[in-house]
Amino acid sequence: MNLPQKYVTKSTGVALSLFLVFFLFVFNASAGYEIDQTFYNSNFTLNLNKDGSYHTTDSTLVSSNNGNWNRSKKQLTFTYATSDSTTQSKSFLITYSTKNRISLKSDKKLFTFKTKTPEQHSIFVSIGRGALGIIFLIFIGWLLSADRKNINWSGH
To answer: What pLDDT is attached to residue 5?
Structure first.
């Protein structure tokens, strides 16, 4: 491997690392919702508390109004005691999750709960995210360019 090939390989690794950091920063896909909040769905409520307990008024979601909850990656599991003192659990796939909304799917049923706080979407955040994406793509193009000195930045 000659020197230019090593340089391009190293630049590609750096570019991919920077892209991963950028992707995780801008398009963060983490949990998003705050614990110890009340979510609403029509006339029903769902409280997910910091101590791992839950309370819901939606009997179609789980059989028991009270119990414990646990989240692992994209799954939310409710564990509760039944009337005959046995423990049961019901798991849901988390299809969407933000600070103000959570959507759960189980057996072709979709449950969406929202907070009473409206979701805040700032136009400046959207424009800034788009501008940052364009700048990042230009940076990757520059980083992977074989002849950086001859890039015509003015467009003339």
So the answer is: 54
